[in-house]
Amino acid sequence: MKTYALRIGMACALAVLTACGSDTQTSTLNDSTARGTLVENPPFRIASVNAAALAAQLGASAAGQQLLQVAGAPLCGVDFNYMHYWTVGGKGEAESASGALMVPTGGAPACSGPRPIVLYAHATQFDKNANIADITDPNNTEGALIAAMFAARGYIVVAPNYVGYDSSSSSYHPFLNEDAQTKDMIDALTAARSALGKVLAATTTDNGKLFITGYSQGGYVAMATHKAMQAAGLAVTASAPMSGPYALAALFDAVFFGHVNLGATEFAPILTLSYQKAYGNVYTAPSDTYAAAYAPTIEGLLPSATPIAQLISAGKLPQLQLFHNTVWATGTPLDALLDEPPATSAVNALYDLGFGPANLINDSYRLAYVQDAAANPDGVLLPLLNPGAPPTPPVPAAAPANPLRQDLKLNDLRNWTPQAPVLMCGGMNDPTIYFSVNALVMQEYWTVVAPPVSPALVTVLDLESQPSGAADPFAAAKLGFQATVAAVAAAAGGGAAGQSAVAQVYHGTLVPPFCAAAARGFFSQF
Q1: pLDDT tens-digit readout, 99-121
Q2: What string of DSSP letters covers 113-146?
């Protein structure tokens, strides 16, 4: 064990957010690599800002003003601390990781003393250098969102960067690996709790209430973490997974059947590498899965320090074309399902974008996957394969034979029932994570699973739905979201151009602030 002084004056001078306070901070450097151990305790403070300065800085940009309209004026200042801690990778190997510990500050009663913790799981990042703790980075919009939405309203925020990002020692990210990602979250929480009372904002402490939330990939991770903590007997007050791929196997079955989601060409390589590293069964060589134009460089391509646009322009990835636009003639009833859907609707026009001659996934790999899905169907997709069949429970395939489908089932979340309240938030028209195949499927699963979950424990919020009346607690989120969607469509000229403009920013930009606001309102009940 060693002690040393962390000099934070330079960070304050460079930070966009200022008012850093003390010039030095004495920390202990830990030699242990045990899970949940901080490398340095207390962690380094990147920046500190008071409530008035945070409001002024957010108000200085159009995007910040929009965030303030949804989040409300800050009540508290925030100290942004940068944690390094130990956790595990996809195979259980010891790995270092980093993350944020955002601590509210200020004289208001909600800003110090015992406060609740929000454990936050971020959305998919393709930038290997991404650091959600670095609020001085103008590209860190998710960090700014959770700071304004939660930390500036009196919640202590713990947000890991995940293994494989920022300063992590791992060469890959265990994307949608339930075991690894939940351990990462729990270890980040353990590390952060060990720092509270030792950071510069030492009067803000843990009051024992724990709320778990996250968006997109982070929505999946948030739900999985709730499940893992419940199984371990660890207290969870409530959770609010947002727009996550909870019914993972059903979502990927839908994609392989031709319902290609936006972002599919980026999700595919990061997912297959994750499962190949963890289970070793996705392929013998990348060319088994990927087209010849991409196979030589696909393994380890993402996450990357090179921007996605540059990878696409360099021919490392196709922008949209996941599958070939061939006409199938396998002599099976699958032919019609595999063929590119005709663009007779806005939805099919979206799916059409996923097909073309520059396809990422081999035809043979896709066919083998789909043939297994037909032989060993998921309960969600069975009506698509057999429209005349009676309704089936929305459970994963009993015994998939395809290795990727086996891995997806292993990490699917249709295998638990919550004992603490859960809010699932998203939008029905999400073109990236289909709301009907995830949030609604989980709701149905929890309704039909034995014993069924009490309806009082599960709340589903579709931002596209109309307010149910004056007492609807999510009316403001729904109306605000719908007004924003309408404004984006109108700015693009309406019609097909408007629909396209909305689709491009729906998942990544439009939904997150309104779901985060709904999550905060939901948490305030407890």
Answers
A1: 999 999 999 999 999 999 999 99
A2: EEEEEEEEEPPP--BTT--TT-TT-TT-HHHHHH
Q: Give how far Cα 384 sits from Cα of 100, 340, 392, Å.
A: 43, 16, 12
Pairing between strand 77-88 and 156-160?
A: unpaired
Token reading at 66: 């929009």
Contact 438, 246 (CB under 8 A): yes
Check residue 108 and report its DSSP letter. Answer: S
List strand residue ranges (DSSP E) for 50-185, in order. Answer: 77-88, 94-105, 113-121, 156-160
Which positions of the chain have pLDDT values less than 70? 1-24
**pLDDT single digits (tens) 411-439:** 999 999 999 999 999 999 999 999 999 99
Amino acid at 63: A
- Which residue ranges form the domains of the chain, and what is each CATH number? 2-236 (3.40.50.1820), 248-411 (no CATH)
User: In angstroms, what CA-CA distances link 121 with 160, 181, 362?
Assistant: 7, 9, 32
Q: Which two three-digit tokens encode residue 494?
A: 């309406």
Answer yes or no: are the C-beta atoms of 426 and 515 closer than 8 Å.
yes
Closest CA to 400 of 384, 428, 381: 381
